[in-house]
């Protein structure tokens, strides 16, 4: 490697080490500078938060113009691809806002329809799972649907990564308001969270969570849901653990 490339890699390592929220949570990181100048990052992260924080810090390093993301999340439960696909298929079929979508899943050899034949389809979703990595494609009428599909994929405990290639048609300009609305929808759907106890502010795609919850598990779950949303750059968790207010 040339000295400039070594300097970039040193700066990347320093950026990861300097983020206190990554302290000892991301080890054995393999970094490579490719011929086109991009940086490949390969490691296993303990959570989506650690994965996204690491990518944000690496992307901010001068000289890093593009990241090849091979930073995957250690699954909560080890599952085969077929089991992950079945869990996600069922989640999509149970989601009321997806009832008018055509849904397909990729099995060996081809895509197969699991929901279709609608008199008027409002969108489409394609599910593919390879080595625990969920790839989503298709077309939906709004950013909330795109984000919800990605969140449902992350909620499958065997998922190692989510590649969300779903298109929004007609296109929408993203905004902090869209993120805030998607997160409120996520909290309403999450059975482990009382959405009424949590306040949400979003500024520049940085989410701030406030409020009171009864357990640390619920506090961590709320933060995890925020990190799982497409487009969220950072999460500031100011939720307090306390008894429910009278």
Automatic annotation (TrEMBL):
Pfam families named among the record's database cross-references: BON (PF04972)
Cross-referenced InterPro entries: BON_dom, Lipoprotein_DolP
Domain BON: 4-75, 99-170, 175-243
PANTHER family named in the record: BON DOMAIN-CONTAINING PROTEIN
Protein name as annotated: BON domain-containing protein
Lineage, uppermost ranks: unclassified sequences, metagenomes, ecological metagenomes
């Amino acid at each position: 490697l040339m000295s400039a490339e070594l300097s970039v890699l040193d700066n990347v390592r320093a950026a990861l080490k300097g983020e206190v929220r990554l302290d000892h949570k991301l080890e054995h990181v393999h970094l490579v500078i490719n011929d086109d100048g991009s940086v490949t990052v390969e490691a296993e992260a303990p959570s989506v938060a650690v994965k996204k924080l690491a990518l944000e810090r690496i992307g901010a390093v001068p000289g890093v113009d593009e990241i090849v993301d091979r930073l995957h999340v250690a699954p909560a439960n080890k599952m085969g691809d077929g089991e992950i696909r079945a869990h996600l298929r069922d989640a999509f079929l149970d989601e009321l806002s997806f009832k008018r979508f055509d849904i397909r899943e990729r099995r060996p050899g081809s895509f197969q329809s699991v929901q279709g034949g609608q008199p008027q389809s409002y969108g489409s979703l394609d599910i593919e799972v390879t080595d625990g990595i969920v790839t989503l494609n298709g077309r939906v009428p709004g950013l909330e649907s795109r984000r919800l599909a990605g969140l449902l994929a992350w909620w499958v405990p065997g998922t190692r990564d989510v590649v969300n290639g779903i298109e929004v048609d007609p296109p929408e300009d993203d905004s902090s308001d869209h993120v805030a609305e998607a997160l409120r929808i996520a909290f309403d759907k999450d059975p482990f969270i009382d959405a009424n106890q949590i306040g949400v502010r979003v500024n520049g795609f940085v989410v701030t969570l406030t409020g009171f919850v009864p357990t640390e598990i619920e506090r961590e779950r709320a933060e995890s849901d925020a990190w799982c949303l497409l487009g969220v750059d950072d999460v500031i968790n100011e939720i307090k653990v306390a008894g429910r207010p009278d």
